[in-house]
Amino acid sequence: MVNERTGELQSSADTGELHTEPSAQNEVEQRGFNLGKSLRDPRTIVSFGLAIAIILFVFRGFNIDLSATWAYMRGADMLLLLTGLLVFYCTFPLRAVRWRMLLNNAGVPVEQGRKSWASLPALIEYIYLSWFANCIVPAKLGDAYRGYLLKHNGKVSFSSTFGTIFAERLLDMLGLFTFLVISGWFVFGTQLPPATNIIFISGLVLVAIIVSGLAGMRWFSPIVRRFMPQRVLRYYSSFEHAALRSFQPRILPRLFLLTGCVWLLEGFRLFFVIQALGVEGLHLALPVIIFVALASSLLTAVPLTPAGLGVVEGTITAVLLLFLPAATLSEATSSQNLALAVTFLDRAINFWSIVVFGFILYLVSKRK
Protein backbone atom coordinates (compact mmCIF):
# COMPACT_ATOMS: atom_id res chain seq x y z
CA MET A 1 0.00 0.00 0.00
CA VAL A 2 1.28 3.50 -0.83
CA ASN A 3 0.98 6.39 1.62
CA GLU A 4 -1.00 9.11 -0.14
CA ARG A 5 0.93 11.91 1.54
CA THR A 6 4.48 10.61 1.29
CA GLY A 7 4.31 8.15 -1.58
CA GLU A 8 6.11 5.67 0.68
CA LEU A 9 5.43 1.98 0.40
CA GLN A 10 3.78 0.83 3.59
CA SER A 11 3.06 -2.58 4.96
CA SER A 12 -0.23 -3.51 6.54
CA ALA A 13 1.56 -3.11 9.88
CA ASP A 14 2.25 0.53 9.02
CA THR A 15 -1.35 1.31 8.16
CA GLY A 16 -2.89 -0.60 11.03
CA GLU A 17 -4.60 -3.18 8.83
CA LEU A 18 -2.98 -6.28 10.27
CA HIS A 19 -5.75 -8.41 11.76
CA THR A 20 -3.72 -11.26 13.21
CA GLU A 21 -3.28 -11.47 16.97
CA PRO A 22 -0.82 -8.64 17.75
CA SER A 23 2.04 -8.51 20.18
CA ALA A 24 1.96 -5.78 22.83
CA GLN A 25 3.98 -3.43 20.64
CA ASN A 26 1.92 -4.17 17.53
CA GLU A 27 -1.26 -3.57 19.48
CA VAL A 28 -0.02 -0.15 20.59
CA GLU A 29 1.03 0.59 17.01
CA GLN A 30 -2.40 -0.22 15.62
CA ARG A 31 -4.78 0.98 18.34
CA GLY A 32 -2.83 3.43 20.46
CA PHE A 33 -2.61 3.35 24.23
CA ASN A 34 -5.63 2.38 26.29
CA LEU A 35 -5.00 3.43 29.89
CA GLY A 36 -7.60 1.23 31.55
CA LYS A 37 -6.69 -1.85 29.54
CA SER A 38 -2.97 -1.31 30.11
CA LEU A 39 -3.41 -1.05 33.88
CA ARG A 40 -5.41 -4.31 33.91
CA ASP A 41 -2.86 -6.14 31.79
CA PRO A 42 -1.22 -9.01 33.75
CA ARG A 43 2.22 -7.84 32.63
CA THR A 44 1.59 -4.42 34.20
CA ILE A 45 0.30 -5.96 37.43
CA VAL A 46 3.33 -8.27 37.67
CA SER A 47 5.76 -5.42 36.98
CA PHE A 48 4.23 -3.21 39.68
CA GLY A 49 4.27 -6.17 42.06
CA LEU A 50 7.97 -6.61 41.37
CA ALA A 51 8.57 -2.89 41.94
CA ILE A 52 6.77 -3.01 45.30
CA ALA A 53 8.77 -6.08 46.34
CA ILE A 54 12.05 -4.31 45.51
CA ILE A 55 11.02 -1.20 47.47
CA LEU A 56 10.05 -3.30 50.50
CA PHE A 57 13.39 -5.08 50.29
CA VAL A 58 15.15 -1.70 50.29
CA PHE A 59 13.21 -0.58 53.37
CA ARG A 60 14.14 -3.74 55.27
CA GLY A 61 17.74 -3.87 54.09
CA PHE A 62 18.56 -0.26 54.92
CA ASN A 63 16.63 -0.10 58.20
CA ILE A 64 14.70 2.97 57.09
CA ASP A 65 12.88 5.21 59.57
CA LEU A 66 9.98 6.61 57.55
CA SER A 67 9.21 9.37 60.04
CA ALA A 68 12.79 10.66 59.84
CA THR A 69 12.77 10.38 56.04
CA TRP A 70 9.50 12.31 55.87
CA ALA A 71 10.93 14.97 58.20
CA TYR A 72 13.79 15.57 55.76
CA MET A 73 11.39 15.75 52.83
CA ARG A 74 8.95 18.06 54.59
CA GLY A 75 11.77 20.48 55.41
CA ALA A 76 12.88 20.82 51.79
CA ASP A 77 12.94 24.28 50.21
CA MET A 78 9.97 24.33 47.83
CA LEU A 79 11.46 27.05 45.60
CA LEU A 80 14.59 24.98 44.96
CA LEU A 81 12.49 21.89 44.30
CA LEU A 82 10.43 23.82 41.77
CA THR A 83 13.67 24.99 40.17
CA GLY A 84 14.74 21.36 39.85
CA LEU A 85 11.34 20.57 38.32
CA LEU A 86 11.71 23.42 35.82
CA VAL A 87 15.24 22.31 34.88
CA PHE A 88 13.96 18.78 34.27
CA TYR A 89 11.07 19.96 32.11
CA CYS A 90 13.43 22.07 30.01
CA THR A 91 14.75 18.79 28.60
CA PHE A 92 11.51 18.09 26.74
CA PRO A 93 11.77 20.96 24.22
CA LEU A 94 15.39 19.96 23.58
CA ARG A 95 14.32 16.36 22.99
CA ALA A 96 11.59 17.54 20.62
CA VAL A 97 14.02 19.68 18.59
CA ARG A 98 16.42 16.73 18.36
CA TRP A 99 13.62 14.35 17.30
CA ARG A 100 12.48 16.74 14.58
CA MET A 101 16.04 16.80 13.23
CA LEU A 102 16.08 12.99 13.14
CA LEU A 103 12.68 12.90 11.42
CA ASN A 104 13.84 15.37 8.79
CA ASN A 105 16.98 13.33 8.19
CA ALA A 106 14.94 10.16 7.79
CA GLY A 107 12.68 11.78 5.20
CA VAL A 108 9.55 11.79 7.39
CA PRO A 109 7.61 14.83 6.08
CA VAL A 110 7.43 16.88 9.25
CA GLU A 111 8.24 20.17 7.52
CA GLN A 112 4.78 20.25 5.95
CA GLY A 113 3.16 19.68 9.31
CA ARG A 114 4.94 22.19 11.50
CA LYS A 115 1.75 24.19 11.97
CA SER A 116 -0.22 21.28 13.31
CA TRP A 117 0.68 17.63 13.87
CA ALA A 118 4.47 18.14 13.66
CA SER A 119 4.86 21.53 15.32
CA LEU A 120 7.29 21.72 18.22
CA PRO A 121 4.46 21.76 20.83
CA ALA A 122 2.93 18.70 19.15
CA LEU A 123 6.23 16.80 19.20
CA ILE A 124 6.71 17.74 22.88
CA GLU A 125 3.22 16.40 23.59
CA TYR A 126 3.95 13.10 21.82
CA ILE A 127 7.17 12.67 23.79
CA TYR A 128 5.51 13.51 27.10
CA LEU A 129 2.59 11.14 26.51
CA SER A 130 5.06 8.38 25.62
CA TRP A 131 6.94 9.02 28.87
CA PHE A 132 3.65 8.84 30.76
CA ALA A 133 2.96 5.47 29.15
CA ASN A 134 6.46 4.25 30.06
CA CYS A 135 5.82 5.23 33.69
CA ILE A 136 2.76 3.02 34.04
CA VAL A 137 3.46 0.06 31.75
CA PRO A 138 6.60 -2.10 31.43
CA ALA A 139 8.75 -2.96 28.39
CA LYS A 140 9.06 0.66 27.14
CA LEU A 141 5.76 0.43 25.25
CA GLY A 142 5.59 4.22 25.40
CA ASP A 143 8.11 4.31 22.54
CA ALA A 144 5.66 2.40 20.33
CA TYR A 145 2.90 4.76 21.51
CA ARG A 146 4.94 7.75 20.34
CA GLY A 147 5.26 6.16 16.92
CA TYR A 148 1.51 5.59 16.89
CA LEU A 149 0.81 9.23 17.81
CA LEU A 150 2.83 10.59 14.91
CA LYS A 151 1.33 8.02 12.54
CA HIS A 152 -2.22 8.71 13.76
CA ASN A 153 -1.95 12.50 13.60
CA GLY A 154 0.33 12.89 10.59
CA LYS A 155 -0.59 9.81 8.55
CA VAL A 156 3.09 8.92 8.16
CA SER A 157 4.81 5.56 8.26
CA PHE A 158 4.98 4.02 11.72
CA SER A 159 8.07 2.01 10.83
CA SER A 160 9.97 5.11 9.66
CA THR A 161 8.94 7.00 12.78
CA PHE A 162 10.00 4.11 14.99
CA GLY A 163 13.36 4.04 13.21
CA THR A 164 13.98 7.63 14.33
CA ILE A 165 12.99 6.71 17.89
CA PHE A 166 15.52 3.88 17.78
CA ALA A 167 18.15 6.37 16.58
CA GLU A 168 17.18 8.72 19.41
CA ARG A 169 17.58 5.92 21.95
CA LEU A 170 21.04 5.21 20.59
CA LEU A 171 22.02 8.88 20.98
CA ASP A 172 20.63 8.93 24.52
CA MET A 173 22.42 5.76 25.58
CA LEU A 174 25.74 6.84 24.07
CA GLY A 175 25.52 10.30 25.63
CA LEU A 176 24.33 9.01 28.97
CA PHE A 177 26.91 6.25 29.21
CA THR A 178 29.72 8.59 28.13
CA PHE A 179 28.83 11.15 30.80
CA LEU A 180 28.37 8.35 33.33
CA VAL A 181 31.84 6.92 32.65
CA ILE A 182 33.48 10.36 32.78
CA SER A 183 31.78 11.36 36.04
CA GLY A 184 32.42 7.87 37.47
CA TRP A 185 36.12 8.20 36.67
CA PHE A 186 36.28 11.57 38.46
CA VAL A 187 34.45 10.14 41.47
CA PHE A 188 35.89 6.62 41.80
CA GLY A 189 38.96 6.49 39.61
CA THR A 190 39.64 2.88 38.64
CA GLN A 191 38.20 1.39 41.87
CA LEU A 192 34.48 0.93 41.33
CA PRO A 193 32.43 0.06 44.44
CA PRO A 194 30.26 -3.08 44.15
CA ALA A 195 27.12 -0.95 44.55
CA THR A 196 27.81 0.63 41.16
CA ASN A 197 28.16 -2.65 39.26
CA ILE A 198 24.49 -2.87 38.28
CA ILE A 199 24.68 0.68 36.89
CA PHE A 200 27.70 0.17 34.66
CA ILE A 201 26.71 -3.34 33.59
CA SER A 202 23.18 -2.20 32.69
CA GLY A 203 24.56 0.73 30.72
CA LEU A 204 27.11 -1.39 28.90
CA VAL A 205 24.53 -4.03 27.97
CA LEU A 206 22.01 -1.47 26.70
CA VAL A 207 24.63 0.38 24.65
CA ALA A 208 25.95 -2.89 23.22
CA ILE A 209 22.44 -4.03 22.21
CA ILE A 210 21.54 -0.77 20.46
CA VAL A 211 24.92 -0.30 18.76
CA SER A 212 24.90 -3.94 17.64
CA GLY A 213 21.45 -3.45 16.20
CA LEU A 214 22.54 -0.39 14.23
CA ALA A 215 25.74 -2.09 13.05
CA GLY A 216 23.77 -5.17 12.05
CA MET A 217 21.44 -3.05 9.92
CA ARG A 218 24.40 -1.35 8.30
CA TRP A 219 26.60 -4.35 7.54
CA PHE A 220 24.37 -7.43 7.57
CA SER A 221 21.20 -6.06 6.01
CA PRO A 222 21.37 -8.25 2.85
CA ILE A 223 21.66 -11.40 4.95
CA VAL A 224 18.85 -10.37 7.29
CA ARG A 225 16.56 -9.47 4.39
CA ARG A 226 17.17 -12.82 2.68
CA PHE A 227 15.56 -14.76 5.52
CA MET A 228 12.80 -12.29 6.35
CA PRO A 229 9.15 -12.91 5.30
CA GLN A 230 7.93 -10.48 2.64
CA ARG A 231 5.30 -8.87 4.87
CA VAL A 232 7.81 -8.24 7.65
CA LEU A 233 10.42 -7.11 5.12
CA ARG A 234 8.27 -4.17 4.02
CA TYR A 235 7.94 -3.05 7.62
CA TYR A 236 11.62 -3.60 8.34
CA SER A 237 12.84 -1.74 5.23
CA SER A 238 11.24 1.55 6.29
CA PHE A 239 12.53 1.12 9.85
CA GLU A 240 16.08 0.39 8.69
CA HIS A 241 16.09 3.24 6.19
CA ALA A 242 14.97 5.77 8.82
CA ALA A 243 17.34 4.52 11.52
CA LEU A 244 20.40 4.67 9.26
CA ARG A 245 19.50 7.97 7.60
CA SER A 246 18.95 9.65 10.97
CA PHE A 247 22.72 9.90 11.46
CA GLN A 248 23.70 12.06 8.52
CA PRO A 249 27.19 13.47 9.28
CA ARG A 250 26.25 17.10 8.68
CA ILE A 251 23.95 17.26 11.71
CA LEU A 252 25.84 14.95 14.07
CA PRO A 253 27.51 17.85 15.95
CA ARG A 254 24.10 19.43 16.65
CA LEU A 255 22.65 16.08 17.71
CA PHE A 256 25.53 15.48 20.11
CA LEU A 257 25.26 19.04 21.48
CA LEU A 258 21.53 18.67 22.17
CA THR A 259 22.08 15.26 23.77
CA GLY A 260 24.84 16.65 26.00
CA CYS A 261 22.59 19.53 27.10
CA VAL A 262 19.79 17.12 27.97
CA TRP A 263 21.99 15.02 30.24
CA LEU A 264 23.64 17.99 31.91
CA LEU A 265 20.19 19.32 32.78
CA GLU A 266 19.35 15.92 34.24
CA GLY A 267 22.39 16.29 36.50
CA PHE A 268 21.39 19.78 37.62
CA ARG A 269 17.93 18.51 38.47
CA LEU A 270 19.44 16.41 41.26
CA PHE A 271 21.72 19.28 42.25
CA PHE A 272 18.70 21.44 43.09
CA VAL A 273 17.00 18.56 44.92
CA ILE A 274 20.03 18.16 47.19
CA GLN A 275 20.28 21.91 47.71
CA ALA A 276 16.58 22.00 48.62
CA LEU A 277 17.13 19.64 51.56
CA GLY A 278 19.56 22.10 53.12
CA VAL A 279 21.03 19.51 55.51
CA GLU A 280 24.22 20.59 57.22
CA GLY A 281 27.13 18.51 56.00
CA LEU A 282 25.38 17.43 52.81
CA HIS A 283 27.92 18.80 50.36
CA LEU A 284 28.44 16.47 47.42
CA ALA A 285 30.85 17.35 44.63
CA LEU A 286 29.28 18.14 41.25
CA PRO A 287 30.75 15.02 39.56
CA VAL A 288 29.13 12.91 42.29
CA ILE A 289 25.75 14.57 41.76
CA ILE A 290 25.97 14.15 37.98
CA PHE A 291 26.98 10.51 38.40
CA VAL A 292 24.03 9.74 40.68
CA ALA A 293 21.54 11.62 38.48
CA LEU A 294 22.71 9.86 35.33
CA ALA A 295 22.67 6.50 37.08
CA SER A 296 19.05 7.16 38.00
CA SER A 297 18.19 8.02 34.38
CA LEU A 298 20.01 4.94 33.09
CA LEU A 299 18.11 2.56 35.33
CA THR A 300 14.77 3.91 34.12
CA ALA A 301 15.61 2.17 30.83
CA VAL A 302 15.65 -1.25 32.53
CA PRO A 303 12.40 -2.79 31.19
CA LEU A 304 11.61 -4.98 34.22
CA THR A 305 9.33 -2.40 35.83
CA PRO A 306 7.65 0.81 34.59
CA ALA A 307 10.41 3.46 34.25
CA GLY A 308 12.65 1.38 36.53
CA LEU A 309 10.31 1.79 39.51
CA GLY A 310 11.85 0.10 42.55
CA VAL A 311 15.12 -0.65 40.75
CA VAL A 312 16.00 3.05 40.65
CA GLU A 313 14.97 3.73 44.25
CA GLY A 314 16.99 0.82 45.63
CA THR A 315 20.14 1.31 43.60
CA ILE A 316 20.32 5.10 43.89
CA THR A 317 19.79 4.96 47.66
CA ALA A 318 22.66 2.47 47.90
CA VAL A 319 24.92 4.65 45.72
CA LEU A 320 24.13 7.78 47.75
CA LEU A 321 25.10 5.93 50.92
CA LEU A 322 28.62 5.62 49.50
CA PHE A 323 28.99 9.39 49.79
CA LEU A 324 26.75 10.58 52.60
CA PRO A 325 28.89 9.23 55.51
CA ALA A 326 31.79 11.20 54.03
CA ALA A 327 29.63 14.30 54.14
CA THR A 328 30.22 14.61 57.91
CA LEU A 329 26.75 13.46 58.90
CA SER A 330 26.44 12.46 62.52
CA GLU A 331 24.74 9.03 62.42
CA ALA A 332 24.58 6.11 59.97
CA THR A 333 20.82 5.93 60.35
CA SER A 334 20.57 9.59 59.42
CA SER A 335 22.57 8.84 56.27
CA GLN A 336 20.13 6.12 55.25
CA ASN A 337 17.07 8.24 55.85
CA LEU A 338 18.62 11.21 54.09
CA ALA A 339 19.64 9.11 51.08
CA LEU A 340 16.08 7.85 50.74
CA ALA A 341 14.72 11.40 51.11
CA VAL A 342 16.93 12.56 48.24
CA THR A 343 15.80 9.59 46.14
CA PHE A 344 12.11 10.12 46.84
CA LEU A 345 12.23 13.85 46.08
CA ASP A 346 14.15 13.27 42.88
CA ARG A 347 11.70 10.57 41.80
CA ALA A 348 8.83 12.91 42.62
CA ILE A 349 10.19 15.08 39.82
CA ASN A 350 11.29 12.57 37.18
CA PHE A 351 8.63 9.90 37.77
CA TRP A 352 5.60 10.94 39.80
CA SER A 353 5.23 14.37 38.21
CA ILE A 354 5.05 12.63 34.82
CA VAL A 355 2.42 10.22 36.15
CA VAL A 356 0.28 13.10 37.48
CA PHE A 357 0.71 15.65 34.69
CA GLY A 358 0.79 12.94 32.04
CA PHE A 359 -2.53 11.56 33.26
CA ILE A 360 -4.08 15.03 33.00
CA LEU A 361 -2.63 15.53 29.52
CA TYR A 362 -3.85 12.09 28.47
CA LEU A 363 -7.39 12.98 29.55
CA VAL A 364 -7.52 16.34 27.72
CA SER A 365 -5.27 15.69 24.71
CA LYS A 366 -6.88 15.80 21.27
CA ARG A 367 -3.85 14.08 19.73
CA LYS A 368 -3.85 10.89 21.84
Query: What structural class should be given to the helix and strand makeup?
Result: mainly alpha
**Gyration radius over CA:** 21 Å
Helix content: over 70%
* Order of SSEs: HHHHHHHHHHHHHHHHH
Task: Describe the structure in brief.
The chain is mainly alpha-helical and 368 residues long. It is 72% helix and 0% strand.
Descriptive account of the structure:
- The protein is mainly α.
- The protein contains 17 helices and no strands.
- α10 packs antiparallel against α11 and α10 runs antiparallel to α15.
Which helices and strands occur, and which strands form pairs?
Layout: H1 12-15, H2 24-31, H3 35-40, H4 42-62, H5 66-74, H6 78-89, H7 91-105, H8 120-136, H9 141-154, H10 158-188, H11 197-219, H12 221-226, H13 230-245, H14 252-277, H15 286-299, H16 311-321, H17 332-364
Helix pairs in contact: 2-9, 5-17, 6-14, 7-8, 7-10, 7-14, 8-9, 8-17, 9-10, 10-11, 10-13, 10-14, 10-15, 14-15, 15-16, 16-17
Which terms would index this structure?
disordered N terminus; mainly alpha; 368 residues
